[in-house]
Every structure is written in C-alpha cells, then in structure tokens.
UniProtKB/TrEMBL annotation:
PROSITE patterns assigned to the protein according to its UniProt record, in alphabetical order: HTH_TETR_2
Protein name per its UniProtKB record: TetR/AcrR family transcriptional regulator
Domain HTH tetR-type residues, every copy: 10-70
Family matches, as Gene3D superfamilies: Homeodomain-like, Tetracycline Repressor, domain 2
InterPro entries attached to this UniProt entry: Homeodomain-like_sf (IPR009057), HTH-type_TetR-like_transc_reg (IPR050109), HTH_TetR (IPR001647), KstR2_TetR_C (IPR041490), Tet_transcr_reg_TetR-rel_C_sf (IPR036271)
Keywords: DNA-binding, Transcription, Transcription regulation
Species whose genome carries this gene: Conexibacter stalactiti
DNA-binding positions: 33-52
Length: 201
C-alpha cells in the first residue's frame, strides 16, 4: 500500500498499525479481528481496509515496520570501524536496545509472520539475512586477526548469537531486574567466551 501523504492520514495509519501490533501481540494474528483493530484505533472498519486492504496486508505492514527499523540499524552498524571485538560488542548492545525498545513488534514478527504469503514472507525475512551477514563478517574478521577461534563455523556462530539476542524478546521486560547495560554486559561476556581462542589448544 502507498504511504499516506497528509499528516492526519499518517497519524491514522500509525494508529491502526499500533492497534494491530498490540492486539496481534496479545491475542495472536489468527484470532484478532479487523473489527477489534478498528475499534482500538478509533476508526471504522472501512477506513482500516482503505489503508491496509486486508488483515494479512496489515500483518505484513506490522512486520515491515520492524524490518525497516532493524534494517536502518544494521546498515549503520555495517559501517563500524575498529577491532572485531569492539564491533561485536557494539552490535550486541545495539541489538538489545532494539529488542527492548520494540519488544512487542519483535514478538509479533517472530511469532506471526508465518501467516504471510510466500512473497511477503520472503521480503520481511530479508532482514535476517542482512544481520547474519553483518555478524558473520565480524566473526570472520576476528578469526583472520586471531581474536576469535578459527575452529568455529562463522555462519553457525552468527546464527547462534542472533538467536540468543532474539530470544530476549520473550523474557526481557522494561521493568525487569536487569538494566540494558547489565544485559549487554552479561550477553557480551557469554558471546566472547564462546568465540575466544582456546589457549590450551
């Protein structure tokens, strides 16, 4: 769907998107109705369909909203300079910030995108490929420099690290026992322990 152009239209678009995100996150996409989304957004069902066309298109837009945010962050991180260790640490901190700030959208993305059609699903999943490439590249740089263990498959390691970070979506809470800084510190130490060169070997 084309992006709305007027300010009032953009606000209405965002209100519908926010309502859908909240309901999909709490109830799941299959059982949430467009009547419920429209009511929570304060619009008519006809207006909802005017902006999004269908319930599935609305789910796609929720997924795309988080992939756009995530892609912008990944592209910024891809320009990082410095040692592989410093870059990996920055990626971990930044990813935790993303998950914390956009937790509900990440949860909807991870749980509900399977309901999209093949073309939509392929598009929203492109972001995963970009993050894997980013993390794998840092690991490979670290292996070449001797900072990281060459015995690890860089692709497997990248997927493992990103799954660890994505998993935080399900248990990290803004009012939880750990601050983002503490989570980043614990997670970074775990990742670096796994990537460290085995001195005994």
């Amino acid at each position: 769907m084309p992006a709305p152009t007027s300010e009032s239209a953009r606000r209405r678009h965002q209100d519908i998107l926010a309502a859908a995100t909240d309901l999909f996150g709490r109830k799941g996409w299959p059982v949430t109705t467009t009547d419920e989304v429209a009511a929570q957004a304060g619009v008519t069902k006809r207006t909802l369909y005017k902006y999004f066309g269908s319930k599935q298109a609305l789910l796609y837009e929720v997924g795309k909203s988080i992939t756009d945010i995530s892609r912008a962050r990944a592209q910024t991180l891809a320009t990082l300079e410095g040692s592989p260790g410093d870059r990996m640490r920055t990626v971990i901190v930044s990813y935790i910030d993303l998950v914390s700030a956009w937790q509900v959208r990440y949860a909807v993305f991870l749980e509900e995108m399977k309901h999209l059609d093949d073309a939509q699903l392929a598009h929203v999943r492109e972001i995963g490929t970009e993050w894997v490439a980013l993390v794998r590249g840092i690991i490979e740089d670290g292996q070449r420099s001797g900072d990281f263990d060459r015995g690890h498959d860089a692709t497997v390691a990248a997927f493992t690290i990103l799954e660890l970070l994505n998993g935080m979506t399900y248990w990290v809470r803004g009012d939880g026992a750990w601050s983002q800084a503490q989570l980043a510190d614990h997670t970074t130490r775990l990742v670096f322990a796994g990537l460290a060169v085995d001195q005994a070997a």
